[in-house]
Recover the amino acids of this structure.
């Protein structure tokens, strides 16, 4: 009887694998999985990437979703797709999906596909930059529709203060400093600070903050992380406060932060947890409606970073903020 039960279990496991192999047995679908390695794309964007009709793309995505190869993520009225976040079990299905991902990730993207991805990221970046250009004067008011600055800045500052008792931060980078409200904290605990923003209007406000606060160890640079990578800069601490939901490819921020950090460096972020309040896109210039904590952990691991302390802050308006730290070496936590 035991042998019969074991045979039935094995047969059930094999049957569960069949939809996965069937759904992945198509070159286009494998390419879709490949571009979803770190990015999240909507149906229209994927149709644009692969130059096909939306109805045809929707069919492929439906089959892959049903097989567990990807999962939908609602962003307001739009549906985006990503790889599944939870593949930690030892079930044969999860193991098989992980092996498929590992296999397709070893194949480089063709240049034309990479160019189309960059075009979509540029569209997203232009959208975000245009918003901040239009609303620079109302920046603080717009942001505080979601969360008052102190609600996330103080926990981040406390995390940095606590770590600074053990670590000497020689050089720090803040990505997207906005009006520069957090720069006094970094200036106090770090010998040299770079503030990087792609909005000239925001940098002008940050410059005024540095003058008013008499911060003499701050360099303000207009550009993106590629700007600093090209210069060969290196930092002990990288901070991104409420920035990820404004950038075209949040996963790339983790890769760039890791590349910009010295060994033993720390990446500290605060950002929104996943939510369904679509008005934030129109009113606050958000590209993404927050993130699952597992998404950030996965992106960090892909960049070679190890998750450290984490804090979750619930707000009365229904939003939740996550404050996270990620280290370049686990031994430095």
């Amino acid at each position: 009887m035991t042998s019969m039960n074991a045979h039935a279990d094995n047969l059930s496991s094999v049957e569960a694998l069949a939809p996965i192999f069937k759904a992945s047995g198509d070159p286009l679908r494998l390419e879709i999985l490949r571009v979803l390695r770190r990015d999240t794309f909507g149906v229209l964007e994927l149709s644009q990437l692969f130059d096909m009709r939306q109805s045809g793309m929707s069919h492929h995505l439906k089959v892959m979703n049903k097989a567990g190869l990807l999962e939908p993520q609602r962003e307001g009225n739009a549906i985006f797709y990503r790889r599944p976040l939870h593949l930690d079990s030892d079930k044969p299905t999860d193991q098989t999906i992980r092996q498929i991902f590992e296999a397709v990730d070893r194949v480089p993207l063709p240049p034309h596909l990479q160019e189309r991805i960059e075009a979509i990221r540029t569209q997203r970046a232009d959208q975000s930059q245009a918003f901040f250009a239009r609303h620079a004067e109302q920046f603080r008011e717009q942001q505080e529709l979601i969360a008052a600055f102190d609600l996330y800045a103080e926990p981040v500052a406390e995390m940095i203060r606590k770590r600074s008792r053990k670590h000497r931060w020689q050089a720090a980078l803040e990505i997207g400093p906005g009006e520069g409200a957090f720069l006094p904290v970094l200036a106090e605990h770090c010998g040299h600070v770079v503030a990087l923003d792609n909005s000239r209007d925001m940098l002008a406000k940050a410059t005024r903050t540095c003058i008013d606060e008499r911060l003499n160890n701050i360099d303000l640079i207009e550009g993106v992380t590629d700007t600093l990578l090209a210069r060969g800069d290196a930092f002990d601490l990288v901070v991104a406060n409420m920035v990820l939901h404004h950038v075209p490819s949040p996963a790339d921020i983790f890769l760039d932060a890791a590349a910009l950090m010295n060994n033993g460096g720390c990446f500290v972020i605060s950002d929104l947890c996943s939510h369904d309040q679509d008005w934030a896109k129109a009113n606050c210039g958000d590209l993404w409606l927050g993130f699952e904590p597992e998404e950030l952990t996965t992106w960090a691991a892909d960049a070679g970073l190890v998750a450290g302390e984490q804090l979750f802050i619930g707000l009365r308006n229904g939003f939740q903020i996550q404050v996270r730290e990620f280290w370049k070496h686990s031994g430095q936590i």
